[in-house]
Amino acid sequence: MLCAGLLVACIAAVSIAELAASWSIVFDDAFISYRYAHNLARGHGLVWNLADGPTEGYTNLLWVLMLAPAAALGLDLLLVSRLVSVLAVLATSWLLGRASVVFLQASRSVALLVGAAYLCLNRPWFIAAHGMETTLFAALLLGALLAAVSFLDDESLSSLLRFAVLGSLALLMRPEASLLLGAFGLMLVIRRKTLRRGFGRAMLSLGISTVLPWVLIAAWRWWYFGSLLPNPFFIKGAQPALVRPMGLRSVMDYLQHVDGLLALAVVSALWPNRRLRPHYCDARILALLVATAFAGFFLRIDTLQDAGQRFMYPVTPLLLLVALPVLVPLLYHLLTWPVGLGRRLAVGIGIFATLIHGSPELAAREFWQVASGTAVGGGQVHPGVAATEALVARKLARFPHIAETSLAFGDAGTLADFTDSTFIDLVGLNARFIATQRDIGRLLAYLFDKRPTIIIVPTRRDLSLITFRHGPLGDWSTWTKHASCRWHEYGYVGTTFTLGAYDLSILVRRDDRHAAELAAFLRRHVISGRARAFPLPVGELGE
Known about the structure:
By secondary structure, this protein is mainly alpha-helical. It is 59% helix and 5% strand. The chain is built from 22 helices and 5 strands. It has a 5-stranded mixed β-sheet with strand order 2-1-3-5-4, with helices on one face. Helix 1 crosses helix 17 and helix 4 packs antiparallel against helix 5. The longest helix has 28 residues. It is globular and about 75 Å long.
């Protein structure tokens, strides 16, 4: 028990260091949900801009609904989100430790180490600090899967109800939960002849937790938004290609990051072990089905801001569940090894480093990055961009006439939430017309007819326009010279430099009644410098 306690203490120290190092992260996508939650708490409904009416620019309905009461109380939604995410990580850790006891009769010490192992996998604290629903969704998904396995074992009404509740909550949290529900339905069909009395109950529960919620949500969406599908579907998943480059990269990056765990899971899945209880075999099959379905799903999704492999992250506890038949005996032999405590600790740390990180050298490098505060997440957009956008947003919020100002940029949640101004999302996640329209002329007419006060243009240091943002207007180099563009209505004020993939060049509408005051405010508080030859025909706004 002492060896297990010391190993857990080491993992806890690393976890605290990683959480502390990640606390300064500003993840822009999180603030999209916060803006909807704030507007809902104020009684405006699920709207992005008050004047535009309801729109669905998120895929985490339950998360938005959960945050709305906190917003009504005036709480910091980022802090609330982080605390919930941390608790979700700990809950998932407990569930996995408990699963090792139920499925493989692990001792308390081994179960403690199994749960602690999860705290090291795929940097859960880094993901928790982003303030998204990811870790809570992973906990709900694992809980629903374990409830499904419990029902396959005992066919009890309590297991069925637990699955129905957790499955419904997971489905409301993220639509990917339907992959688990589909896998469970397949398992029920396969196991139909061996179920004593639960097939009808299970199919009824599956219908209640899938078909009924989807029907009710679909009817509500049609009534409230005028559409059955949210905006992100048209931006990220409506392409005809079976495999998207961003999705392929996300899946491959994830598999590379969890290669040690993946190898352990593969060995465990292929290793013959007749002593495994039947209900654990069901758990392993179900976990592998869901993990495979997740990979297939995200292969065809444009996963642009995949910080920390967050899209595939819910697969991590499922892989650890599959790996238990190898991990549990390994940890048991470590704890009972008749050598000195120091040697067992050293070997234990080596095992965790090798299995979780792929190699001790990589583990040491990642630990140093965390301890020194230099670790950053994955994805194309460096955190410096989002942090700079948040800083710009806080400063813009102090402009005296910000309520009368409208901004046009990508799906920048911080700029929208902090300034509380009308925000035209050029990506289209929060603008239905942009999300569904593909005619460039109509899109540009829509944009310029909105007469945004400020247009933020993402430019590189060499003043070239970016090409990698998502949405129909994502490749700025392809449409900025279109005849429908009315750049003569705008003047270039200056550029805010970032540490990331692009800088923020700011244009202000010339005929706005606050144009001169706004330009002076931007130069004094926001602008870092000016480009000598701006790439668009806008000219400069007078001092």
